[in-house]
UniProtKB/TrEMBL annotation:
Keyword Ligase: yes
Cleaved signal peptide residues: none
Record key words, sorted: ATP-binding, Ligase, Nucleotide-binding
GO molecular function terms listed in the Swiss-Prot or TrEMBL record: ATP binding; tubulin binding; tubulin-glutamic acid ligase activity
CC annotations in GO: ciliary basal body
Keyword Amino-acid biosynthesis annotated: no
Protein name, as recorded: Uncharacterized protein
Record-linked InterPro entries: TTL/TTLL_fam
Biological process terms in GO annotation: microtubule cytoskeleton organization
Superkingdom in the source lineage: Eukaryota
Amino acid sequence: PTTYLMPKETEQFKQAADLNCNTCWICKPSDGTEGDDIEIVNSYSEISGEMLKRDFVIQEYLSKPYLVSEKKFDLRIYVPIIGIDPMHAFFCEEGIARFCTVNYQEPNSENKSNHFMHLTNSSVNKQNANFVNKNDASDDSSRRRMSDIFQNIIKENPNGSEIVAKLKQDIRELCGKTINAIHARLVDTVEEEFKESSVVKSTLFQLMGFDIVITNDFKPVLLEINGNPSMSTFDNVQVGEEVVREISEIDVEIKIPLISDLFTLVSMYTKDRRSLDSVSSFGCLTKVYSNSVVNPPAELGLLHHIKRIYNHILRYEE
């Protein structure tokens, strides 16, 4: 969605808000975590004084999400990046759907402060008595598998299988093109961070969490990227007056294979930097980006070749 970095882009946001008076905007502190201090506003004048003292992001609120059981949700999708030269990014084929705990209505002056309706963060919704914490990720659980969402779409729509196939492909392409867009910045950051270090760049990897909302016409939209997604497989569960730490089956089911497959690929890459060039998938992971000249994902092929030609021209001009 349209996004502004505040306070740097204050004037640009004010102009956009003036032109779109009926649009809602969501304010997220740059240093915030777990949904803390998020605000939904219609104009600059509604932003709290406390928020204005901080660096924050303000983003157009997506008011027409695809709903399941009348509730809004988002998808936490895991995207590991391995290496720098070459760099490979993979998409974990299973993710977590995180649900709100109040039936959704488009934001208005009466409900826009209801975080249980508009924010999908589990840490926020656990504060609501309606939060359903079931290890089996059943149909009424507030945390479900991404594949459960796809099955729901298939059941609800006559051409559901075609919708899901296209949606999956769109999500993979979104992840791959996002990594393609930030690749140069990642390379520059690594060069700066490790210019005086003996760290071997072939040992570098990063696991990222992409937060995506599906619109009511089945389009995936990237909301934000978390550079340090939780890999915990435990959950705090209220039992009577006590909080008990229990193993979360959905987290074990998704995160253990993810970590295992990721470390296997990292080990392969560390031994031979070209070892992943021809790997299109491994376990639960599917390649969505590669800057290797060998076998890049088909949907990024044209972008990849344009980049190579551009870089060649730059080198020639130098």
